[in-house]
Amino acid sequence: MKYCIILLNILFVVAAGCKQDHYQIPAASFDDGPPGPPSVVKTVRVNDKWRLLVNDTDFYIKGVAANDYWQDAIRYGANAVRTYGVSKSTKSIMDSVYKVGLFVNFGIYIKREVDGFDYNDEAAVKAQFESTKAAVNRFKDHPALLVWSIGNEAEASYTNRRLWTAINDIAKMIHEIDKNHPTTVTLATSNVDHIRNIMQLAPEIDILSVNCYAPNLPGVPANLQAAGWNKPYMITEFGPRGTWQMAPEPQRILPWGGLVEQTSTEKAADYLHAYQQEILPNRDKGCLGSFVFLWGYQRHGEVLTWYGLFDKKKNSFEAADAMQYAWTGQYPANRAPVIASRNDLLLNGKKAEAAVTLPVNGQNNTAMVTAADPEGDPLTYEWLIVKEKAAASDGSLPEGMEGLIADNKKAQISFKAPAEGGAYRLYVFVRDDTHKKVASAVIPFLVN
Fold first, then answer.
1. Please, which residues have CB within 8 angstroms of residue 403's CB and are 6 or more apart in sequence?
2. What's the pLDDT at 31?
3. Starting at the edge strand that comes first in sequence, how are the strands of the sheet with 41-46 ordered?
């Protein structure tokens, strides 16, 4: 994911710009012993098609890139979770997901040049290697372990090809001390040159992983073929068009730089299309599966509600329903509310692309949303006005500004503009509280 989208609640990183909270693993095995025998995972070719075998059983990855609600993923049909680094929470996460039957694509954080790391510094590279080796020794026999994932988008900011040598050394070490689990490395794109660098400088990598968002998913198989990649691959993040990919839709970039966000219903359609049209059809072409982004609520990023499949109250958006359908062939018995399109949220009669501008302290503004519940369940409404790029202490969406909205519990509201000029976002959350389901829509506006 492009530059600073999340920090998942164990260390998590996306793209190439977020600082992290590192945790040094003690050079020891399990504190209390593993909860079961280690899984045995391998990649094999069956009738010239790549397959992932877990304990000799074909395993197609239906995964979640998660920062919350780990165990709940199995109720939707998922079979794996992805982590991004090692923290004090790692063991408890692995133990808890193992109890419900999930496997872990185990993230090992590899430092990047934007972290101030120099791959010409042999002592620093060795220290990173030894820290990683300690983590591998500690977790290699955990029965939830699926794959070792060495780095996340480290190449997005690199200039030093020794990065790949360091990754290869780690992968080689893993193969020497853990014969039961394959290795992967995650790229920010399916850049042909980067893939060739891995082939040349990191041959110990067993599986290629790519984070890829609409509309770039269709190009991944062609890029792998152009690079000459002949091993399997995974899509380790997918979702709607990234906030850094808006140029093909210039009407969604407002004059002051605000980004027009899709409704939760529009996002659900993107998730389902990505899985059904660009991931699953490539199963016999080397794709071992995927991880949907983001399982939980978002804590970092350009726009803090762009990717999360849940809100902070653990209500699920329509995209979670869509993924259940993708994974199981059946929607849940009760589905999330619907806000069909951006035309269904209006501010002073205008939709988001109209670039709404309000005067400071402007009175008598109105907003209205049109939402529906598939089962006809009663809906509640919550409106928020948030300053652009404002965040709560954990990096997530903050509470709305006070004193602006007359009654934020209705489908139609009146409000006054903030007293300070600048860019803001008007959010509406429409909830089926009985079934813990939610829909959302957003209009950015400018106060001047």
1. none
2. 59
3. 41-46, 49-54, 57-58
Q: What pLDDT score does 304 carry?
A: 96
Rounded-to-integer distance, Cα 160 and Cα 119, Å: 7
**Residues 421, 423: Cα–Cα separation, whole Å:** 7
Q: Which amino acid is at 405?
A: I
Please check whether residue 62 is in contact with residue 77, taking contact to mean a CB–CB distance below 8 angstroms.
Answer: yes
Residue 221 near residue 234 (C-beta atoms within 8 A): no
Q: How many CB atoms lie within 10 A of CB 336?
A: 29
CB-based contacts of 299, cutoff 8 Å, min separation 6: 6, 7, 8, 9, 67, 394, 395, 396
Closest among 53, 68, 59 to 12, alpha carbons compared? 68
DSSP-derived pairing of the beta strands 145-152 and 103-108: parallel
The predicted-structure confidence for 210-268, as pLDDT tens digits, reads as follows 999 998 999 999 999 999 999 999 999 999 999 999 988 999 999 999 999 999 999 99
Please tell me the predicted confidence (pLDDT) of residue 3. 38
- The kind and range of the H/E element at 171 are helix 162-177
Phi–psi pair at 257, nearest 5 degrees: 100, -10
Q: And the tokens for 46?
A: 């069956």
Task: Quote the pTM value.
Answer: 0.93
How far apart, in whole angstroms, are the C-alpha atoms of residue 372 and residue 432? Answer: 10
Task: For residue range 43-84, list pLDDT tens digits in order.
Answer: 999 999 999 999 999 999 999 999 999 999 999 999 999 999
Q: What is the largest CA-CA distance in the chain?
A: 69
Helix H or strand E segment including 123: helix 122-139
Residue 251 CA to residue 351 CA, distance in Å, equals 12
Contacts of 407 by beta carbon, 8 Å cutoff, 6+ apart: 413
Rounded distance between C-alpha atoms, residue 12 and residue 305, angstroms: 17
The pLDDT score that the predictor gives to residue 365 is 98
Dihedrals φ, ψ of 156, to 5°?
-65, -20
Interior angle at CA 309, CA 308 and CA 315, nearest 5:
115
* pLDDT reading at 17 higher than 60: no
Q: What is the CA radius of gyration of the chain?
A: 22
**Rounded to an integer, what is the distance from CA 84 to the centroid of its chain?**
10
The stretches of 71-121 forming alpha helices (DSSP H) are: 90-100
